[in-house]
Structures are given as structure tokens and as C-alpha cells.
Write a structure and sequence with these properties.
disordered C terminus; 491 residues; mainly beta; ten-stranded antiparallel sheet; 4 domains; 4 helices
């Protein structure tokens, strides 16, 4: 944004020699503008002597803001200076960036320049007051102004997360109204806006900027998040250390801590979408997921997860292991769920044979298989083929009712060896299920069906074969000739 002038007066003196000239300069402005912003005043005063120069004062008044600068350049080419801006209306910043939007509030900036003329160090500090963009108001928040060439320290504190979200929504809306591409930001904000509760907390951090605006680098960056909560659930404290340079984001460490819950992430991600990250999670409370989900039963338990993430960030390849202690959903309460090894990639979620182990009272159900998976909805495509296998040596039938609430109350033991294929919409089950001394409450009756023993074979064509199934209703045994006698009904 360079001013244009209808008229300018140049005053000065020149002396010295041709090899070492000296002089003074004064250049007041008359009638100028910059990006259609009226320039009320521009005045430059300074001097030079040989290879050295001095800027006594630069004053630029435009759009209700004042820019001031001063500095010196010594014989050795070393530059020293200071600059300030303020108070400047936020509307001026938008107009300078060729944007439009309803705004309120002011920005103030001050900084210093020091170093060699061809590679100076610029430090800057920005303060805001009463900022409002499209009706979204923020309190004063010290921040940073990256200046090219970049070499400045950034610090901020007491920045409210929900306030940052609201300000980001307003920025996205303003960019969108000015035909700026914000689809990725819109998608993230849309998901955040659908949450039943929104995250709250306080951010603090620092970073060292280097490089230039076209090719920036961020070194020794740190971000801290404290006092967080989502609804009534506390959020983990966060500490992030890393940087960015030459198109690579480096995560030296990302640590999350909440009571016994700990997470550590390290690795790299490139701007071209390639990533290589290692994630270790210990004692993750699954209840943290509940506020983020809708139309799904609440879950609980403590999870340990180790996973390596590689490949493109939009559709990464995940390989790892998972263990959940005391998981519960609806009425299903287990001792442990363990996935010894899983692979998650576009097209499939694969668990090694017998790699999934669900344990209740030391009686495990082991399973494995390959399910259709997509990073886009629907995550589990019910129309695509899958395959799975499961074995139960000594199971507890009470577990089933936790997953199937409409199922009648049933207790007892069971064993099974099952193979499933087809699609999730129309699965084909094969194998057998055995019952041992089971009891079941019959809906609408005061009597129980007990002593239920026998075998059910599942055959191709969605057919079940009941073999040797006996039970007692009150005192009347159910045997040959009864409705529960051996037969071959079709499901």
C-alpha cells in the first residue's frame, strides 16, 4: 500500500564533496491517497553524510491513524530505528487488505528495527481494544505483527477460546463475503457450531518468526491451554512445542494432561499433505467423547492407545493397538476390550484374526476381520462387503442385552464359533451357538424360561437349525413335540 500524491514539496540542502555528499531533506505532502484511503499528512525530515543517514521523523496520517518512524544508518551499514502506529481503526486494516465488513475497535502497534541493512531484525507488538467484526466483540488481547523480513518474538496471554472461535467465525464470514477461499475453515467452524457444548479455556504462547511473509519460518513455538472444559466435563491441559520451516510442520512434543490421562504426540507433517506422527495416549476417559456425539449412547471407560499415522493427512494410514479398561455402553459393562493390532486406511479397517479380545469375568470373546471404512460419511458403508470371525469359549448372555436393549432379559452361559460375510446391510452368518442352563424372561408373562440348553447352527441362506434345545417353563419341561423341539426354521 503505497501513497499517491497530487502534489509534494521537496526542500533540502546539499554539501560536502561528490565522494562524500551531505545534506538535509524535508518533504511535506499535499493531497494524497493510498488504496482510496485519504492521506491527510505525510512529512519526512532527515539527512545524510557520506555512507550514513538519519531519519529524524516520518509522519503519515491516513484514515484516522498516524504512522511514525525514526532511525539511523551508520557508516558500516547498520540500521537502528523505531516505528509506531495508532490508534488505527480496524476498518482501516480491512480496507488496506481489500476487504469489506462491519468493524469497531482500534489497533496499536510499536516496534524496533536493528541490524544490517540487507538483513535487519524487526520486532513488533500489537495491542487491540474493543475489536468487533460483524458484531463479534473481543477484549484487549496483546498479539504479534509479523513484519518482513521476519525475526520477531510473539507472546500472548489470557485469550478466551470461545472468544477466539467467535472472532474466527466473523473473520471467515468477512473473507467469504469478499470472495476469499475459506472452505476448510468453514468446514471446521460448521462442525464446531454443531456441538451441544463448546470448548472453553485460556490460551497462552510464544513463537519466534523468521524468513519472510512469502516464505515464513516459525521456531521455538509454544502453545499452552489451561482451565479448559466442555460442558460439565473438564478438558486436558495442553502444551505444544514445535515449529515450521520450508513447508514442514515439526511437532517436538504435544502433551495433554488431565488427572491420570496423558497424551504425547511427536513427528512431522508437510504442507503437501504427507505426515509421519506417533501418538501415545494413556488413560483417556471415553466420557470426553459424549458431548461431541449426538444420537449415540453414552460410553465410559479408560483407553490406552498407541498409533503411528503416516501418508496424506486427508486419508492417512493408521497402525496401532488399543486397550480399554472397564468399558461400558448402555447396560453392557465389560472388564476389558483389547485390540492387539489394527490397520486403518481408506477402504478398510483390519483387525488381525483373534486380534480383538472382549473380556467379562475372565471369559473372553475373541474376533478379527475386515470392515469397509471411509474417512467420509458413511464411515462404515453398509452396502460394501466385509468379513469377520468370532469365538466365545465361555460367554455370559447378560452381555448381549447391553448391546441389544430390546432383547428380553436373559442370563446364563453360551459358547459360539461364528463367521460373518456379505454386507453389513445383509450379513451372512455361519457357525454355531451353544446355550448352557440359560434363563429368559418371556415378554408379557410372569413366568421364566429356564434350564435352556442346546445348540443353534447358522447355515448359508440365513437359515438357523435348532438341535436338541430343551428348557423348562415353570415346572413343565420343553422337549420333543414342543415348539422348541429340533427343527429347521428359516430366519
Amino acid at each position: 500500500m503505497f501513497p499517491t500524491f497530487a502534489g509534494i514539496t521537496l526542500e533540502g540542502t546539499v554539501g560536502g564533496t561528490f565522494k562524500a555528499p551531505a545534506g538535509t531533506v524535508r518533504a511535506p505532502l499535499a493531497d494524497g491517497s493510498a488504496k482510496e484511503i485519504p492521506v491527510e499528512r505525510l512529512e519526512v525530515r532527515g539527512g545524510f553524510a557520506g555512507k550514513s543517514a538519519q531519519l529524524d521523523e516520518l509522519v503519515l496520517e491516513l484514515g484516522g491513524a498516524t504512522v511514525r518512524a525514526e532511525g539511523t544508518l551508520d557508516d558500516g551499514g547498520r540500521l537502528t530505528g523505531a516505528f509506531s502506529l495508532g490508534p488505527a481503526p480496524l476498518s482501516l486494516a480491512l480496507q488496506a487488505a481489500d476487504l469489506r465488513g462491519e468493524t469497531a475497535g482500534h489497533l496499536r502497534l510499536r516496534g524496533q528495527v536493528e541490524g544490517e541493512l540487507n538483513d535487519p531484525t524487526v520486532t513488533a507488538q500489537v495491542e487491540s481494544e474493543g475489536l468487533a467484526l460483524a458484531g463479534t466483540k473481543e477484549n484487549s488481547a496483546p498479539a504479534a505483527a509479523p513484519v518482513a523480513p521476519l525475526d520477531c518474538q510473539v507472546t500472548w496471554h489470557d485469550l478466551a477460546v470461545d472468544g477466539l472461535r467467535r472472532l474466527t467465525e466473523a473473520v471467515a464470514r468477512t473473507l467469504d463475503e469478499n470472495d476469499q477461499e475459506v472452505s476448510g475453515l468453514d468446514s471446521a467452524l460448521s462442525h464446531l457450531g454443531k456441538l451441544a457444548d463448546r470448548p472453553q479455556g485460556v490460551l497462552a504462547g510464544r513463537a519466534a518468526f523468521a524468513g519472510s511473509l512469502r516464505d515464513p519460518a516459525v521456531r521455538d513455538a509454544r502453545l499452552d491451554f489451561t482451565d479448559g472444559h466442555l460442558g460439565s466435563e473438564p478438558l486436558p491441559a495442553l502444551s505444544l512445542a514445535g515449529g515450521f520451516e520450508q513447508g514442514v510442520i515439526t511437532c517436538d512434543s504435544l502433551d495433554l494432561l488431565l488427572n491420570d490421562f496423558r497424551t504425547k504426540v511427536s513427528g512431522q507433517a508437510k504442507l503437501d499433505g504427507e505426515a509421519d506422527l506417533t501418538v501415545n495416549i494413556h488413560q483417556l476417559p471415553l466420557a470426553l467423547v459424549n458431548p461431541w456425539t449426538r444420537d449415540a449412547p453414552d460410553i465410559s471407560g479408560l483407553a490406552d492407545l498407541t498409533v503411528r499415522v503416516t501418508g496424506p493427512t486427508k486419508k492417512p494410514h493408521l497402525e496401532g493397538a488399543l486397550e480399554v479398561a472397564e468399558p461400558a455402553m448402555r447396560n453392557a459393562v465389560l472388564d476389558r476390550v483389547q485390540v492387539k493390532r489394527f490397520v486403518l486406511e481408506e477402504g478398510a479397517l483390519t483387525i488381525d484374526p483373534d486380534g480383538l479380545e472382549i473380556t467379562r469375568q475372565d471369559n473372553p470373546l475373541v474376533a478379527g476381520g475386515r470392515l469397509p471404512f471411509s474417512y467420509e460419511a458413511p464411515v462404515l458403508d453398509r452396502t460394501k462387503p466385509f468379513e469377520a470371525a468370532a469365538r466365545v469359549a465361555h460367554g455370559d448372555l447378560r452381555l448381549l442385552r447391553g448391546f441389544l436393549p430390546a432383547m428380553p432379559t436373559i442370563v446364563g452361559g453360551w459358547q459360539a464359533d461364528l463367521v460373518a460375510s456379505g454386507t453389513l446391510e445383509k450379513p451372512d452368518l455361519r457357525g454355531h451357538v451353544g446355550l448352557q442352563e440359560a434363563s429368559m424372561v418371556l415378554p408379557g408373562l410372569e413366568s421364566n424360561l429356564h434350564g435352556l440348553t442346546g445348540e443353534i447352527r447358522l447355515e448359508p441362506g440365513r437359515r438357523a437349525v435348532i438341535d436338541g434345545l430343551t428348557a423348562t417353563l415353570n415346572t413343565a419341561p420343553v422337549g420333543p413335540g414342543s415348539p422348541a423341539s429340533p427343527g429347521q426354521p428359516t430366519l
